[in-house]
């Protein structure tokens, strides 16, 4: 029988009609006139099938058609629920295959026929197209189409996912797609929001992964189907691209990309941090970058000025550190997203490079690099100093250096000529000492910065003190080291003629300085200072100082007794 059936099949492929009437057929004649290139499965006994057909008599008149009822036929193949000819004729069919079947009466409706439709002993001709095949034993079929290299988190129950999909029936008919809807499909997995097959099919995916998920109807919309687009008993094929996933219980995730070997201090709440960042979504698209603005992002942390995930993620950073901060949407921009580039419920990935940070209560930080053994005389307020310096930002960017000028830098301490932090850092230094001074912006150039200095920047100075001259208090030009001579005027009036002209005054002051009895304000032309001192004493401006003028002056300001 089997070999005869095969023979008949072979004949039919050679064109059985051309042979005229071959007499009653023993078996179904099958002509597979369209076989799709891809045939993932073939109908087997017990499979559920959905198909369309046209049924005609030998003369071509139609006696039945599934198309006329506007619905596919669903049934189980090979178990005697269909006419035997159909049971046999459907065996081995692929989805989208088309067959022409010739069913002899004894495999059709026999000698009885169907009242009013099929006369007795009629050979039936069917054109069949297979639409869907599945089995109760079926499991979900998952094919991975693309898997990203980096895949260390995968979808689990109760995760929230955002994905794109194309949904088709098994025969390729599209029924739905997320594309063209401006947005991903967003939902919870394993919480009953999705059809069972989708819950299972999404599980284990990582962001960026692409899968084909074939879902049998009992894990999809089952016997009811869905609306007009998904027929009853339809298998579904979803091509899914997972865009993003997180769990509502997630906190932030940190990855430490680059931590400097030495980290004196780590950031805490209330610190002001300057950092560069690249912000991307899980699919790798860049939504924002500080580099595009050529400016660090500057903010206090832990104070609610930035999204909570960032407030948390910037805690404990070191200056110079590079860190990846992965922020779930409930610690980012939530369900509504932000702007045009951050979709609702998006996970944000910030790659951060910390340039510097400080606290508004920070003092100047001094670290001594070298201190000479005999360091007896150190700088004090009002002293005049000469020093070399290199100034840089904490990320190493060089800003200024005294070595670039012909002469080292000079300054009188406490005169507001240099930034407060540097002034403080130059105190209690001895000649030859080397220091590194770290200056927070409130003791430097502040929020506004200065030419070449970014706003709120922490500055680092390398200092070498070259020279020190003791200073004089504010408003003084000269001070005595101990008590001035008892009879000052007589000491000054060298030729004892009762007057002190500029020459005598100058000679007197020079000898006092030379004998170490006093010193003039440093850092200025001594001649000019002596001249200023003379002018101060010569009250009536006649070019000479008298005893009365000198007395008058010292009575006037008792407190300034060290000065002339
Ligand atoms: C059945 O007939 C209709 C109308 O002629 C045709 O469109 C359809 O393709 C036929 N189906 C098959 C399976 O041949
Ligand atoms: C992902 O993997 C990287 C290294 O490959 C690791 O540093 C990081 O902690 C992992 N992230 C998660 C969320 O497991
Ligand atoms: C869905 O179909 C569109 C258009 O053919 C295609 O660009 C897109 O990559 C498909 N998506 C998936 C997840 O296969
Ligand atoms: C950033 O700086 C670079 C180089 O200095 C310059 O080419 C670019 O135009 C700047 N971009 C902006 C947004 O200022
Ligand atoms: C940000 O992206 C730019 C360009 O790809 C890169 O040069 C820079 O190092 C990145 N920054 C961080 C902090 O990852
Ligand atoms: C500093 O003091 C030490 C002893 O305390 C002394 O030996 C040395 O000479 C002093 N140096 C100067 C420059 O005064
Ligand atoms: C400044 O930097 C130069 C070059 O690195 C170095 O030679 C010099 O000693 C530095 N100056 C100070 C004061 O540290
Ligand atoms: Ca005189
Ligand atoms: Ca006078």
Automatic annotation (TrEMBL):
<keyword id="KW-0256">Endoplasmic reticulum</keyword>
<dbReference type="GO" id="GO:0085029">
    <property type="term" value="P:extracellular matrix assembly"/>
</dbReference>
<dbReference type="GO" id="GO:0030199">
    <property type="term" value="P:collagen fibril organization"/>
</dbReference>
<dbReference type="InterPro" id="IPR001179">
    <property type="entry name" value="PPIase_FKBP_dom"/>
</dbReference>
<feature type="domain" description="PPIase FKBP-type">
    <location>
        <begin position="158"/>
        <end position="246"/>
    </location>
</feature>
<dbReference type="InterPro" id="IPR002048">
    <property type="entry name" value="EF_hand_dom"/>
</dbReference>
<keyword id="KW-0677">Repeat</keyword>
<dbReference type="GO" id="GO:0005528">
    <property type="term" value="F:FK506 binding"/>
</dbReference>
<keyword id="KW-0325">Glycoprotein</keyword>
<dbReference type="InterPro" id="IPR018247">
    <property type="entry name" value="EF_Hand_1_Ca_BS"/>
</dbReference>
<feature type="signal peptide">
    <location>
        <begin position="1"/>
        <end position="18"/>
    </location>
</feature>
<dbReference type="InterPro" id="IPR046357">
    <property type="entry name" value="PPIase_dom_sf"/>
</dbReference>
<dbReference type="GO" id="GO:0042060">
    <property type="term" value="P:wound healing"/>
</dbReference>
<feature type="domain" description="EF-hand">
    <location>
        <begin position="525"/>
        <end position="560"/>
    </location>
</feature>
<keyword id="KW-0106">Calcium</keyword>
<keyword id="KW-0479">Metal-binding</keyword>
<dbReference type="InterPro" id="IPR011992">
    <property type="entry name" value="EF-hand-dom_pair"/>
</dbReference>
<dbReference type="GO" id="GO:0016020">
    <property type="term" value="C:membrane"/>
</dbReference>
<keyword id="KW-0732">Signal</keyword>
<keyword id="KW-0697">Rotamase</keyword>
<feature type="domain" description="EF-hand">
    <location>
        <begin position="487"/>
        <end position="515"/>
    </location>
</feature>
<dbReference type="Pfam" id="PF00254">
    <property type="entry name" value="FKBP_C"/>
</dbReference>
<feature type="domain" description="PPIase FKBP-type">
    <location>
        <begin position="270"/>
        <end position="358"/>
    </location>
</feature>
<dbReference type="GO" id="GO:0005758">
    <property type="term" value="C:mitochondrial intermembrane space"/>
</dbReference>
<dbReference type="GO" id="GO:0006457">
    <property type="term" value="P:protein folding"/>
</dbReference>
<dbReference type="GO" id="GO:0003755">
    <property type="term" value="F:peptidyl-prolyl cis-trans isomerase activity"/>
</dbReference>
<protein>
    <recommendedName>
        <fullName>peptidylprolyl isomerase</fullName>
        <ecNumber>5.2.1.8</ecNumber>
    </recommendedName>
</protein>
<dbReference type="GO" id="GO:0035909">
    <property type="term" value="P:aorta morphogenesis"/>
</dbReference>
<comment type="function">
    <text>PPIases accelerate the folding of proteins during protein synthesis.</text>
</comment>
<keyword id="KW-0413">Isomerase</keyword>
<dbReference type="GO" id="GO:0005509">
    <property type="term" value="F:calcium ion binding"/>
</dbReference>
<dbReference type="GO" id="GO:0005783">
    <property type="term" value="C:endoplasmic reticulum"/>
</dbReference>
<feature type="domain" description="PPIase FKBP-type">
    <location>
        <begin position="382"/>
        <end position="469"/>
    </location>
</feature>
<dbReference type="Pfam" id="PF13202">
    <property type="entry name" value="EF-hand_5"/>
</dbReference>
<feature type="compositionally biased region" description="Basic and acidic residues">
    <location>
        <begin position="538"/>
        <end position="564"/>
    </location>
</feature>
<feature type="region of interest" description="Disordered">
    <location>
        <begin position="533"/>
        <end position="564"/>
    </location>
</feature>
<dbReference type="InterPro" id="IPR051989">
    <property type="entry name" value="FKBP-like_isomerase"/>
</dbReference>
<feature type="domain" description="PPIase FKBP-type">
    <location>
        <begin position="46"/>
        <end position="134"/>
    </location>
</feature>
């Amino acid at each position: 029988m089997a070999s005869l059936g095969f023979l008949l099949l072979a004949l039919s492929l050679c064109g059985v009609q051309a042979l005229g009437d071959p007499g009653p057929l023993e078996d179904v004649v099958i002509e597979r006139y369209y076989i799709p290139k891809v045939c993932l499965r073939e109908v087997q006994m017990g499979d559920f099938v959905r198909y369309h057909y046209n049924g005609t008599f030998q003369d071509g008149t139609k006696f039945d058609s599934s198309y006329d009822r506007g619905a596919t036929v669903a049934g189980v193949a090979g178990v005697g629920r269909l006419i035997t000819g159909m049971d046999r004729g459907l065996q081995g069919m692929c989805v989208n295959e088309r067959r022409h079947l010739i069913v002899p009466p004894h495999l059709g409706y026999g000698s009885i026929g169907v009242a009013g439709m099929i006369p007795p002993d009629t050979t039936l001709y069917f054109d069949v197209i297979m639409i869907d095949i599945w089995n109760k034993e079926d499991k979900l079929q998952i094919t991975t189409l693309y898997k990203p290299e980096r895949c260390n988190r995968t979808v689990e129950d109760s995760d929230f996912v955002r994905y794109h999909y194309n949904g088709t029936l098994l025969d390729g008919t599209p029924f739905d797609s997320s594309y063209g809807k401006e947005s991903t499909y967003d939902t919870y997995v394993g919480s009953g929001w999705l059809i069972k097959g989708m819950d299972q099919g999404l599980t284990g995916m990582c962001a960026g992964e692409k899968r084909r998920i074939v879902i049998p109807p009992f894990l999809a919309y089952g016997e009811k189907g869905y609306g007009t687009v998904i027929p009853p008993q339809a298998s579904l094929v979803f091509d899914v691209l997972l865009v993003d996933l997180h769990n509502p219980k997630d906190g932030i995730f940190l990855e430490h990309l680059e931590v400097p070997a030495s980290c004196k201090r780590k950031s805490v709440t209330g610190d002001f941090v300057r950092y560069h960042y690249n912000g991307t979504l899980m699919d790798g698209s860049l939504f924002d970058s500080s580099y595009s603005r050529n400016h660090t992002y500057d903010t206090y942390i832990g104070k609610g000025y930035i999204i909570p995930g960032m407030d948390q993620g910037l805690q404990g950073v070191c200056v110079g550190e590079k860190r990846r901060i992965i922020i779930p949407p409930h610690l980012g921009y939530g369900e509504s997203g932000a702007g045009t580039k951050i979709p609702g419920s998006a996970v944000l990935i910030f790659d951060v490079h910390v340039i510097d940070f400080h606290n508004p209560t920070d003092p100047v930080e001094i670290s001594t690099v070298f201190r000479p053994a005999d360091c007896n005389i150190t700088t004090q307020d009002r002293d005049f100093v000469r020093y070399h310096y290199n100034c840089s930002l904490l990320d190493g960017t060089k800003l200024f250096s005294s070595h670039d000028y012909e002469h080292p830098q000079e300054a009188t301490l406490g005169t507001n000529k240099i930034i407060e932090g540097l002034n403080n850092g130059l105190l209690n230094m001895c000649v030859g000492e080397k220091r590194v001074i770290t200056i927070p912006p409130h003791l430097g150039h502040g929020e506004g910065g200065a030419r070449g200095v970014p706003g709120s920047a922490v500055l680092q100075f390398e200092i070498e003190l070259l020279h020190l001259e003791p200073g004089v208090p504010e408003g003084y030009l000269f001070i005595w080291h101990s008590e001035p001579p008892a009879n000052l005027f007589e000491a000054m009036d060298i030729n004892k003629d009762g007057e002190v002209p500029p020459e005598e005054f100058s000679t007197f002051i020079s000898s006092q300085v030379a004998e170490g009895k006093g010193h003039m304000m440093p850092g200025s032309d001594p001649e000019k200072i002596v001249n200023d001192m003379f002018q101060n004493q010569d009250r009536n401006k006649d070019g000479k100082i008298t005893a009365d003028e000198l007395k008058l002056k010292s009575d006037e300001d008792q407190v300034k007794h060290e000065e002339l």
